[in-house]
Amino acid sequence: GGLGDVLGGLPPAMAANGHRVMTVSPRYDQYKDAWDTGVPVEIEVGGRVETVRFFHCYKRGVDRVFVDHPSFLERVWGKTGSKIYGPSAGEDYKDNQFRFSLLCQAALEAPKVLNLNSNKYFSGPYGDEVVFIANDWHTALLPCYLKAIYKPKGIYENAKVVFCIHNIAYQGRFPISDLSVLNLPENLRGSLDFIDGYSKPVKGRKINWMKAGILESDRVVTVSPFYAQELVSGEDKGVELDNIIRKTSITGIVNGMDVQEWNPATDKYLDTKYDNTTVLDAKPLVKEALQAEVGLPVDRNIPVIGFIGRLEE
């Protein structure tokens, strides 16, 4: 959804500003452009050692890295429209903490171990002078592992973490009994510990990934100045994390638009291309084509309104 759009457009914009940019996400599919780097890494999670591999492609100045592990690929393999986060709405897969802990730790390994040379301005591993941008609850433990595992060993000593909240409603709340799965020291318990009034997934004390991400990161940002205000305006808008965010402060940065992808002069999905000089002639034609395609009365004088967003209670 929105996060996918941001991750599609923001990294190329950062690369265009001269940064070396890598995105790290799960390998949910056999992405045809992404090839196996041949670099395996062993990660400890849930009391056992798991091997992950990294697949890679280079596009628009960005190293796109995909973490390969059966727990990601098996979820969606062979079934279209398969669910990534849970079997049905509002329900988590039982191994979600295991899966996203794996993602967080793999993302911390990638800059150190991947010897990438696609970019003519940069070569070799990224090293440990990096800024991590962790998006939403799934990556919220990254700053925790950074603090608990890497910094004590003198790795990533100058690295910083920005935690970005795209949707406060999804926080990664799990039973406190699962704490041992996460391989985190006892001194981080306070950042994860959370009590709410709901009986899901269990009553009483819980783990809250997003709370930990907010508290352990160097900066907290969100997708617009107005949303930043909204999140600290009260318990309902901040979905019970408003007091935590007030403690750390938050910066709202407006989500931008990928002007390459959404350029009507080159958009392959438009029957009639246009720019600012031809927009008034072309827009009615595009509207008529859309009306015909979806079975509406074809009439260029009727307004057509589109809504992109989630419909939920």
From TrEMBL:
One GO MF term attached to the UniProt entry: glycosyltransferase activity
InterPro entries on file: Starch_synth_cat_dom
GO biological process: starch biosynthetic process
Organism whose genome encodes this protein: Chaenomeles speciosa
Domain of life: Eukaryota
Statement: the UniProt record of this protein carries the keyword Nuclease: no
Lineage per the UniProt record: Eukaryota, Viridiplantae, Streptophyta, Embryophyta, Tracheophyta
Residue stretches in coiled coil: none
Protein name, per record: Granule-bound starch synthase
Keyword terms, alphabetized: Glycosyltransferase, Starch biosynthesis, Transferase
